[in-house]
Amino acid sequence: xxxxxxxxxxxxxxxxxxxxxxxxxxxxxxxxxxxxxxxxxxxxxxxxxxxxxxxxxxxxxxxxxxxxxxxxxxxxxxxxxxxxxxxxxxxxxxxxxxxxxxxxxxxxxxxxxxxxxxxxxxxxxxxxxxxxxxxxxxxxxxxxxxxxxxxxxxxxxxxxxxxxxxxxxxxxxxxxxxxxxxxxxxxxxxxxxxxxxxxxxxxxxxxxxxxxxxxxxxxxxxxxxxxxxxxxxxxxxxxxxxxxxxxxxxxxxxxxxxxxxxxxxxxxxxxxxxxxxxxxxxxxxxxxxxxxxxxxxxxxxxxxxxxxxxxxxxxxxxxxxxxxxxxxxxxxxxxxxxxxxxxxxxxxxxxxxxxxxxxxxxxxxxxxxxxxxxxxxxxxxxxxxxxxxxxxxxxxxxxxxxxxxxxxxxxxxxxxxxxxxxxxxxxxxxxxxxxxxxxxxxxxxxxxxxxxxxxxxxxxxxxxxxxxxxxxxxxxxxxxxxxxxxxxxxxxxxxxxxxxxxxxxxxxxxxxxxxxxxxxxxxxxxxxxxxxxxxxxxxxxxxxxxxxxxxxxxxxxxxxxxxxxxxxxxxxxxxxxxxxxxxxxxxxxxxxxxxxxxxxxxxxxxxxxxxxxxxxxxxxxxxxxxxxxxxxxxxxxxxxxxxxxxxxxxxxxxxxxxxxxxxxxxxxxxxxxxxxxxxxxxxxxxxxxxxxxxxxxxxxxxxxxxxxxxxxxxxxxxxxxxxxxxxxxxxxxxxxxxxxxxxxxxxxxxxxxxxxxxxxxxxxxxxxxxxxxxxxxxxxxxxxxxxxxxxxxxxxxxxxxxxxxxxxxxxxxxxxxxxxxxxx
Length: 824
Known about the structure:
- With 824 residues, the chain is mainly β.
- A hairpin with a 4-residue loop joins strand 34 and strand 35.
- The radius of gyration is 28 Å and the shape is globular.
């Protein structure tokens, strides 16, 4: 039996012997690209930061660079949609923090946190409610442990020797008094893990004798047999406990498959969600039967709130929802009140209903009946709580892109008025998110000023001039919005947090194309120069000088389009047109106006990442990055009904604009994308003659393998077979004549993009004599992580572009007409 890694080697060897001279026959081990590309992988990333709500302390989080392939090759369990490390009961794929530094703001020196183990792997950093401490976990090869650090002394200590269970993520939460944490621990005396049973005791069965509909997407990593069930139960079982900052441990309830455990705002109760049998082989763990209980912080059961059934039949739609109670959560502005949602249309968007969702509330001591507090005409997405008289509720409906925000009065039977009624596609009309601050319980609630104003923060600030983040103020009485500040050229400044709403003090990041983001404190009222508080160096200074320009142009049907043009260091227009690489990801819209809104800013830092396409400007290419590929279906029309036509028209318009500017050589253009961008790439090569080569990473190419919808397509294959077939590159493999490089993570965990998609598509292309190459990256999931994998991926991409795009003799002139029915 030949495994996928062996097939990779065979594919590479065959290609080297018969087709390419660029790829040497001995290139069967991981390869390294030129230094300009390799540095993106090997240089440590810029640290992250976390700021206290008062803005007096900054925690600087040193981040790890890409892990080695040896780390990814460690044992991994793929069960019920989870990927776990069986050695330490944590996630098998994690990005770690490797160091912690504290800085007193605004101008204090940085102090390294003491008391950390050597070479720590830190996760889940969380400030205490009083912000005098912070907690975090440290992972080792055998277990995960809980630490806390004192801000005043910048010293950390291990809180308990007991191991943490982080299989479901988020393994702890602070209680409101900052004196204890609610933690998921490995149960004491746990037996040895059950081994995988290689000898079956019988067949594996799934049964739908009831004839009930259950349209499920193509989830990955599902349970497959009783042996999987036993392992899933073993590694996800934990004991909830209250752990004091003195290390004392008080169990709460019994061990179980604990999906979540959260203390009430007043710290007197804990809500625990426990998964139980029957498990499913069709859906992941978050659809399994789940019981929701409230316990006293001392450990006694107070109330069982709900025991929900297995949810295998949730409509596969962006507007679909589970039947029965869902999304139990604490009300942030009350001591101990729980609210939850119940779909009134059984979660089926096809059912007509004046009220889609109804929200219920139950207060401590949880002996009364829940009361209905809010009716949503669309899907309820949550409250932003404020105080006894003020909260915000949001609703949305994907099919119409409807988004509604209402102002709610909890003291007046949740009477509501509409604040914002807008299209979720309308980025220009996005008012921003309301400012919040911790209340007496340490929960974030609306920061309502004495004048009944709240500040609104928009970190993108889309506008016809490009992205210009802003801060404004809204009066909740008059609903009037007044602008306070907006980012201005020639810098791009993004609001990160409101440090003092009354005084108008905010935290921002400032950047330019050649200056990486650093943090600043800005006073909106005093209008003085912002104060810089970090000085992170340019992460890849060798790439300084790559120029960036925001392009705006139109598609033949009148839709406005944008792209970001990157040009090599030192390029002059007199140098003539360049070989070009286009990188894109399509998006669906319900209106041409929304599809044509400008995206991005020419003043942002050149964020050149290994997984993107912009880096190839360093290799002498003009790069059309973030090229807008809108797929529009207005009114009753579905976007994908004319997917291919709109796809090709958008790509051709981008190339035409580059030719008009004199920087793009239309005879030397390559195209690439990841995931849905890979699907796009294969379709562009199949249905047009615009490109000399393509690179498709981790895509899906046969839509009959995702028959109940994909991306934002809501129809099933049986409702729109022609659309599925026309959009599937696999179904049109006989038309492909353009060289295509296929790359895929061998352990892809993304819904729909199973590795078999690339495997079968490659075989189809090869069967028709297409020029193609398939590279499976061992141990990699949908996004690639290991240093060796990223370096090799860039080597493959660079070699492919050099051979099939750059080496093509240059010509001048406009783009040839796009062919709509086959390959070149």
